[in-house]
Write a structure and sequence with these properties.
Blueprint lengths: L2 E6 L4 H13 L3 E4 L10 H13 L5 E6 L3 H7 L7 E3 L3 H11 L3 E5 L5 H13 L6 H12 L1
Parallel strand pairs: 1-2, 1-3, 3-5, 4-5
C-alpha cells in the first residue's frame, strides 16, 4: 500500500478531509499531519513538518492544502528531495509527474472545488515519471538543494 502524507492549514482543512476520505477509499495509506479541525493555524508549520518526512524518505508522496496552495508549495520546495507543484488542472498534474517527478501536490482549499481536486489527486498519484532525458534535469534540481 502506498502511503501519502496529508496536511493543510485551516483554509485547506475541509478539502483535506475530502482528500483523506478519497485516498482511504482508494487503498492508500494516509498519514494525516493535521490540523485536525478548522481553527486558525500557520501553514508554514504544517508544510515544514510534512515536507521533512518526505525529504528524509519516510513517506514517498504528499498532498498539502492551504487557501491558495501556493504557500504550501513555497515551504515544501525549501526541503531537499521535495519537488512540490501547485496544480489547478489535471494536465499540469500529469506533466508534473511525467517530466518533473513531482512528489508533493499542493492544492487550494479556497480555489479548487472538491470534485476537481480529486481528479487532480488521481492523475497525480497514478502518473509515472518518464525518466530518460527528464531524469538528468530532476537530478540537477536536487543538487541545488
Amino acid at each position: 500500500m502506498t502511503s501519502v502524507i496529508l496536511t493543510s492549514d485551516h483554509a485547506g482543512y475541509p478539502l483535506k478531509e475530502a482528500v483523506k476520505t478519497y485516498l482511504a477509499d482508494h487503498n492508500y495509506g494516509v498519514v494525516d499531519m493535521g490540523p485536525f479541525d478548522d481553527q486558525t493555524v500557520d501553514y508554514p508549520d504544517f508544510a515544514a513538518h510534512a515536507a521533512r518526512e518526505i525529504s528524509e524518505g519516510r513517506i514517498p508522496w504528499g498532498i498539502f492544502i492551504c487557501g491558495s496552495g501556493v504557500g504550501m508549495a513555497m515551504v515544501a520546495n525549501r526541503f531537499h528531495n521535495v519537488r512540490a507543484v501547485h496544480c489547478l488542472d489535471i494536465q499540469t498534474a500529469e506533466m508534473a509527474r511525467k517530466h518533473n517527478n513531482a512528489n508533493v501536490l499542493t492544492l487550494g482549499g479556497r480555489t479548487t472545488p472538491v470534485e476537481k481536486a480529486l481528479e487532480i489527486v488521481d492523475i497525480f498519484l497514478n502518473t509515472a515519471f518518464d525518466g530518460g532525458r527528464h531524469q538528468r534535469r530532476v537530478e540537477k534540481i536536487d543538487k541545488l538543494t
